[in-house]
Amino acid sequence: MTSNSYSQSTPTLLEKRYEGKWIPLVLYVLYSVTHFYLHDFGKVLPHGLWFVWLFSVVVLDSQKLSKSLKSRKYSLFFIFLLFYFFTSAMGVGLSSGINRTIAFAEVCSPILMFDLYRKTSTKKMRFVVIFFVLILLFNAYFLYQTVNNNLWGLNGLRNIGDFFEENSALANVFHLLYAISMTTMMLFYIVIHNQTYLSFKKRGIVVCCLLLIIIFFSYIIIRSLYMTTLLSLIMGLFLSLMYGRQNWILKTLVILITFYVSFFVLYDVVVPPLLQLAGDNGVLQMRFEEIHSLISGELMQGTTMGARNDLAGNSWKTFLENPLLGINYKINDFEKFRYVIIGNHSQWIDDLARYGMFSIVLFSFIYKSMKPMWKDYPLFPLFAIYVFIGIFNPVFYFIQNSTIFFYLPMLFAYLTRKAVNGNHSPNIV
């Protein structure tokens, strides 16, 4: 069923009663309040955006959702969710088991979002876009109020204040711009991926906004020297050049070659002179040395990457010692054993340690979600980086580390009016 035909379908009872005007907002507020106490505020921003987007689609397209959830793939997801709840309830009690189950479902929300994001009609999609503009302002305001309280913790920017230590007001402005940029990128991702439904009367304004966002993120990469984002930028540039080609295997090979060439250039050409320029600047020198150690393969010599590998290794050892059902149901206080039994630095390996071989059910669900996207270029890199980040980081860094990766191809597609997801070019009015 096409989007146009669906937009003319009979509204559901839920749509007639609530019209979708306040349910997503209530969900977002409740979600933000709980995560403000459970996590730092920086994770509320990306988590909340995924959460609201998912439930906006769920609430506004309940008919489509019911059909999607009847598939065999989602039966695997619900089986694992029940097992997750069962082991969590045994280990930490019923209420904590419920909370952890909800948190796990949220980790998998991008998978649900990938399946549902095409299902909204024009009228509903316009509402979602307007709603996200309001969320942008909401997050920007509260992030601005908390930038000095260490409640946001955006990865790769924790030392950014050191660059502005003589001007705290400038640091506050920088953090506010970062929050606005982060949320705006998510907004434009939704708009561009749904360009079949939306039209832009001021195309030049949209393009300029996207360019400014990418320039700003490039500046962040240069100043924070966060390696994952730096490599994502390089990958995004090459993917932009390859956009429109159907052979994704060739794309993957080119990406790998790009990695190796980039490593070689950084190792022999870029990093050594930058180390000399850094001089007595401890933050810069630490970042450059980290990059140099990563490129040279010295991962286990006390660097940040080496520490992450050690923590992931702790989870792997726990899995080998508890291969069948994992360790989640055995202990009732993970805080005492954090980083020792469960490393908390590799989502998928941590899941193996927690749930043992039963995690294969989860991995099967991820594979079944990923397979149809191999030929759907704009979604494939997004989903692939989601899986990749899950190996080396908790998945909640997904948005923070990967946005630049797929926004450059999206911008290229928009500028050249190439088809996205097999649909026609943007409807520019």
Q: How much is the average pLDDT?
A: 54
Low-confidence stretches: 1-62, 135-164, 178-200, 223-229, 295-303, 398-429
Portion in beta strands: under 5%
Topology order in helix (H) and strand (E) letters:
HHHHHHHHHHHEHHHHHHHHHHE
Q: What shape does the CA trace take? A: globular
Separate helix tally: 21
Number of strands: 2
Sheet with most strands: strand arrangement: 1-2
Structural class: mainly alpha
The description of the largest β-sheet is: 2 strands, parallel
Description:
A two-stranded parallel sheet has the order 1-2. With 429 residues, the protein is mostly helical. Among the domains are: 133-244 and 402-419, no CATH class; 247-298, no CATH class. The chain has 21 helices and two strands. It is globular and about 65 Å long. Helix 6 runs antiparallel to helix 19 (359-370), helix 16 (304-321) packs parallel to helix 18 and helix 20 (380-392) runs antiparallel to helix 21 (398-416). The model is unreliable at 1-62, 135-164, 178-200, 223-229, 295-303 and 398-429 (pLDDT under 50).
